[in-house]
Amino acid sequence: MGMEIDLYEVNAFSHRPQGGNPLAVMLLDEWLGSLALQILASKGGKPETAFVVRRGEKCEIRCFSAQREIDLCGSAILAAAAVIMDFFDRRLRRMDFVHPQGTVGVWRHGGKLSLDLPQWTLKPRLHPGPTLAALGVEQGEVWQNRDIVVILENREQVAALRPDFSRLAKLPSPLVVVSASDGGQGYVLRAFSPAAGIPEDAATATAHCALAPYWANKLGCPHLHAEQLSPRRAEFECELLGNRVIVASQVLQVRHKLLTLPEGMNLPFSH
Description:
Blueprint: E1 4-12, E2 21-28, H1 34-43, E3 48-55, E4 58-65, E5 69-70, H2 74-87, E6 94-99, E7 102-109, E8 112-118, E9 123-124, H3 129-135, E10 141-144, E11 148-151, H4 155-159, H5 165-168, E12 176-181, E13 186-193, E14 198-201, H6 208-219, E15 223-228, E16 234-241, E17 244-249, E18 251-260
Parallel strand pairs: 2-3, 4-6, 11-12, 13-15
Antiparallel strand pairs: 1-2, 1-18, 3-4, 4-5, 6-7, 7-8, 8-17, 9-10, 10-11, 12-13, 13-14, 15-16, 16-17
């Protein structure tokens, strides 16, 4: 029999069983090989899987979709923090997660968890036509950072989007985020990542690295409520703090189970 891994199924950014981003969190004693992690993620039945190894007061984390590794996944970090704080050490109020691009802090306050994320600067995208065509819209502001960010006129336009996923998958950035004002002191968004095997992401924490600064400047408000209009829906409270974005929300654990790995999958860690 192969080694057993604890698996926790978690909904991040929602308190509802059918809301937020459904993830799998697997706790490891030591790292498996990247191929083994990718195979596990592809068979886990969730859009994204977080793999965590605890190193004293810090945790190392890697996140995979069914098709590729994701360099920074806020939902995975939030879900992993909830599992450790709820199942292993209820006294914890703050944790640091080391991921391939840096470190993200998470802390608990009341019934919510907060992520400490970087702010990302948006630059105009030089050739917006293919992005707008893939989304099926004629007009919109098109920006670029790690992701492609599109700003539309209103909430209704964002909700009505019916993108061409095959065309989106051919764009140079794997994630396309679309947003608009909610008509008050906040904004709505949707996020698409067909190139990573996720046609529409249920909840996208890293989108707020760019959206929160953009809308804070546009609306003149550093405290913002954001709603992701995916079929599962997700909600976020965002606050600008220096050069950081604090993203707070709720997490719901669904269930815990054990996975048994086939013999030969416990490969050494490799990048």
